[in-house]
Amino acid sequence: MGSDRPVAHTRPGTAQVPGEPVLDGFFRLWKRARQLREESMRALWFCTAIFAVVALFFILFFLVRNGYPIFEQVGVLNFLAGDVWNPTGASPAYGIFPLIAGTLLVTLGAMALAVPLGIAVAVFIAELAPPGVRAVMKPAVELLAGIPSVVYGFFGLVILTDWIRVSFDVASGESWLAASILLGIMALPTIVSVSEDAIGAVPRGYREGSLALGATHWQTIAGVVVPGALSGITAAIILGMGRAIGETMAVIMVAGNAGVVPEPLWNVLSPVRTLTGTLGIEMGEVAVGSAHYHALFGVAVVLLVITLAVNLFARGILARVSERHTATAARKRGCGTIKPYAYAVLGIGALGTLTVATDILVAAAVAVALLGAVYVRRRISAKTEEKIAFGFMYAAAGIVLFVLGVILFDIVYNGAPALSWEFLTASPSNLGRAGGIGPAILGTLYLVGGAILFALPIGVGAAIYLHEYTREGRITGIIRAGVDLLGGTPSIVFGLFGFAFLVLYLNFGVSLLAGQITLGLMILPTIIRTTEEALKSVPDSVREGSLALGATPWQTIRRVVLPPAVPGILTGTILGIGRAAGETAPILFTAVVFSRRFLPTSVTEPVMALPYHLFILATNVPGARENQYGTALVLLALVAAIYLVAIVIRTRYQRSIQW
Fold first, then answer.
1. Which of 32, 393, 394, 401 is most buried, by CB atoms within 10 Å?
2. Residue 549: what are its φ and ψ, rounded to 5°?
């Protein structure tokens, strides 16, 4: 019989299942939603990754925007080469040559101390130290890096300058020498850590080949290992130099702060003033919009250009080191001992262009050292030479431990009597001579907590994008350069940017919120780097297995990659907390007041903070010695505890990873 029912058109050999169009439509919608989610997550992580570049651009923009009027008024050459800095005089003068000279001289003195000690300690840890000694030396170097700069400055002001005054019979020990010694100690951890990594990256076969040919252990180190690591050692020196150039609070406290060029130039007992010290001393008292205000931003522009140049150069060398120690690069270069020397020569030449005087001093010092080494080496046996060299390395390691011990002993011994429950909880009184530091402790925790809440999601997101969503290319290179340069920006520059952008332009005022964002920007590179290293530790096979089972990239990252990387991310977070807790310069103009009886009730109010409280007590409040040491001890204990937790987590994490 016929039927009026319409016949469905189907392909031969197939049958139409009831409801199949609905299922197909649902599947397409689900697939599209899944794709949109993946694209949205990728876009979100890209935005977090590009944030470092945007932040660096904003810092440059606001510094140049506020510094340009002084360049227009005075002229770039007169501003840079003028020999008088007196912006508050009857006839204001805005020449920053004495400030540049003071910065370079202090840095040169610091490097003269830190370079030989740092390289010797790095060789000792990598090549000579037994496992037990190495287990002590590495945390000691890390602890030196974790001591807040204001604590270094306090120690230098109380102990170091007094020692110089008595030893050299001068009216004041606040001098170029004091600043160089202190900055040399502060630059040591950077030089040791980077140099040790470079030495460890030299293939083991190089050492074995040298020893098999009859060379002594020292001849192998001096003739094979150190030349093979010379590029990394050069980068370590340049990074240490950048650390010294960008230091603020310690220099303010011990350098004497006289804007003069020493006469004669080698008079290390002369007071000097640096670029960073000028910013820290004068920015808090200047009228906004005045010529003096714009001149200080001009100083910040010069400082930022110098530090960015130094860090770019170091980044280029480290990139060469990374390339050099791949198997392909090793085969192409053979023994690879010519190009590192070329890079070192280029580095000395580039840095020498900053000032003719510095270039001459460096060249003379290098020439004298080389001639002396050649003369001595030709007249002693290989075994005697090895004993002398190893003796120097053991002595260098002992000096580092001795310095750390002296700093810790002095602060603990003199600070312990001040500790009490009242001191830890009460508000200050009598200009900080009495009372306690309770509001400063809580204010520090507020600042650090807000900084982590700001920086952690951005930093983790940036690291996820850089390692999980993109390959090495131009965009990735720009982002990494932005992160590295942001990490090398002096802390005082972050403070000026926070003051210009957050306090004034966005009208946040001097407030907890402005300080939190400024500190968050400063610790962002640390979180990005440590998170990326944690992600690298997860094997690619884990990702491939997840993707093969049908998981999306974001599902793989969230459920497979991130869980085992959490301890590494936590370590980076703790390191960021430690750095933020000990910094003074970024919050100097953005967040803090010296004395406040009550805690802030909102993020728009200023707070007390331990580093700033110690700085004012040490430099402006006579008769407060016990509370000075008590505050220094509490700050040091807080930061040291934070870094100790990070070290413990990292050690346990490394032992527990068994892929």
1. 393
2. -85, 5
